[in-house]
Amino acid sequence: MFERFTKDARDVVKGAYTHVEGSGEGGQCVEPEHLLLALLDREGGRGPFALAALGLDERRESVREALRDARRRAGLTQAETDALAGLGIDVGEIVARVEEAHGVGALAGDRKGKGRWSGRVTFGRGAKEVLERSLRVALAQRDRHIGDEHLLLALTLRPGVPAEVLADHGVTYESLVRVLYGSGGEAKAG
Question: Where does the record place the Clp R domain (predicted)?
């Protein structure tokens, strides 16, 4: 499938690897959050253009902060956190207690030097789903190659932290399609 990726899309994947390698995380897997961080780092390409057109340029740090907060909550979305609160479970209190006992980032998997790691960064299930969905998105838009914009569109379609954070910042599949393709590109790939 990577032979269908444009240079911009490949650069996003490489950037995601860089985020994993530089994070010191225990799992050493590229996850959807890493793909979003790599997209936020980029300046060229259609994906970053669409983010800028939707006003995300000035709020990139806010997106990064929201991703860090979700990571500290063990990857729970705000919707999941709110649902647990409805059951009387205070995720913030749980995070605080775990971090008090085990250190900041304990639920995030930030265990530098602990555990076994093969030295090879792999794709997590979520990142694989985003890559596969990006192909379906490109095909639905009748695009021959998978660009960074297709990765971004796929991130908005996959339920989870990146889609929630982007939506909270006004970036949805529909708003991206309007910016990237105009009103005629409403084909949705599931």
Answer: 2-186
Instruction: Please give the residue that has the higher pLDDT: either 104 or 147.
Output: 147
- Return the closest-CA partner of residue 160 out of 131, 126, 123, 133: 126
Spatial distance between the Cα atoms of 173 and 92, rounded to a whole number of angstroms: 30
Give CA–CA dist 127/144, Å, rounded: 21
For residue 149, give the 3-state DSSP assignment. helix
* Cα–Cα distance measured from residue 77 to residue 102, given in angstroms and rounded to the nearest whole number: 22
- Cβ(77)–Cβ(164) below 8 Å: yes
The pLDDT confidence band at residue 115, using thresholds 50, 70 and 90, is: very low
